[in-house]
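Fold this sequence, please.
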Amino acid sequence: MSVRTFCRAAVAVTAVGVLSLFEIGTASATGKASAWYLGHEAARVNYWSSADDFRLSDISYDGNSVYAQYQRAGASRRTLSNTRGCHTHTDFNRSFTNGQSIKYRVCVKVALEPDNCSAWKWDTTG
């Protein structure tokens, strides 16, 4: 492989990498909340207000399932569950009216103990 061919390949790979970083950056969640169990992050919920999408992730090898709760202003509390196990996530798409206040949190379901939940995170629907 000549130096010229190698440089063209390196530039192409770099350009693809930069584009990939740009796409990931623009698709970042507007908010997230994490719940901890036994000193480690065990559950995470990400929320994308532009699409009203939630991603509920089970992060820890603790044998516990995870759930998220959300509530819009004037509406009842809803629960989203991920019982698939460690290092999995479940995506949920909702269609909310734009401009509503919404709060959400994530919890680890712990047997024979109170569930470990994050603080409520506030956002606005997109």
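Residues 3-26 form the longest helix (24 residues). The first strand starts at residue 31 and ends at 37.
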